[in-house]
Each structure stands twice: as structure tokens, then as C-alpha cells.
Amino acid sequence: MTQDVKTRIRAIIAEQAMLEPDQITDDATPEALGIDSLGLVETIFALEEEFDITIPFNANEPEKSEVDFSDMGAIVAAVEKLVAEKGQA
Q1: CA Rg, the chain, in Å?
Q2: Which tens digit of pLDDT belongs to each residue from 22-45?
Q3: Which of 13, 40, 41, 64 has the fewest beta carbons closer than 10 A?
């Protein structure tokens, strides 16, 4: 399950960043990938749609949110947590 979720997240992020999924590393930040704040919002919408989850509105501000979107590893962990809480993967 985990690898499938991670693969799907990488594909969404790669599409937003106009990169290949294998160019997305776990420590890559959205900024380093060329994803601006609007792009991050679009990414969040795409992740919500892909996994049928709700990502807190302020996910792009980790100090104000339970969800950390500061780098790829954090994004994967956050989405996996939300998917697990929903009870399906």
C-alpha cells in the first residue's frame, strides 16, 4: 500500500512540477521543484481528488497545521496518515 500511495503522490507532484516522477526525491521541497504557492494549492486539490481525502486548508503552513507539506517525505507521510484515518487505501 505505502509504495502505491507514494508512487501516486510522486506522479501528481511531478505533473505539477513538470518533471519525471523519478526526479522527485523525498527531501525535495515544493519550492525546489518549482512549485509556487498556487501550484501547491493545485497539488493539494489533486491529492484530495486522487485519494478522496480532505487536506487541512493551511497544510502549506506547517507551523499552523497538523499536516506538513514542507518536503516530499512529509507530504507522503501526511497523505498516508489521512488515507489511513479514512480507513481505505
Answers
A1: 12
A2: 999 999 999 999 999 899 999 999
A3: 64
Residue among 65, 64, 76 nearest 27 (CA) = 76
- Cell 506547517 locates to 62
Residue 32's φ and ψ, nearest 5 degrees, are: -65, -25
- Report CA-CA distances (Å) from 68 to 54, 65, 73: 14, 7, 9
Residue % of the chain over a pLDDT of 90: 72
State the DSSP H helix or E strand holding residue 77, giving kind and residue range, or none if neither: helix 72-86
Give the three cell numbers for residue 41: 494549492
